[in-house]
Amino acid sequence: MSESKPIxxxxxxxxxxxxxxxxxxxxxxxxxxxxxxxxxxxxAAEAASMAVISMMRGYLNLVTPRPPGNVHxxxxxxxxxxxxxxxxxxxxxxxxxxxxxxxRNYLELEVRGCxxxxxxxxDAQLTLIWAA
Length: 132
Hints:
alpha+beta, Thiol Ester Dehydrase, Chain A, 2 helices, HotDog_dom_sf, Acyl dehydratase
């Protein structure tokens, strides 16, 4: 099994879509959340957590392989709606921009999530210091 080379700073293209994937707010995820935070029927808190989990899974699975040593420097998240149990969440990652500041490679990535009928769920912006 051969491993792919990590994505390098020079590989990022501002404005380019890096990919899309589907995450599902399924019963197994809900049960894991409930085991940590207490019982069924957690409602909005559980649903908001599932949106954040989907956002991070989308980033982690689409922007890969990553070089070791990256720093997740900042994150902004705007909730637009809450996913419903069983709902598929379409996650898209786009490179918004990149720049070198103080000899460090900074990336701005946008992560958007939509539910059924393209219903907006979240818009996130991740600021990363890219190691390579």
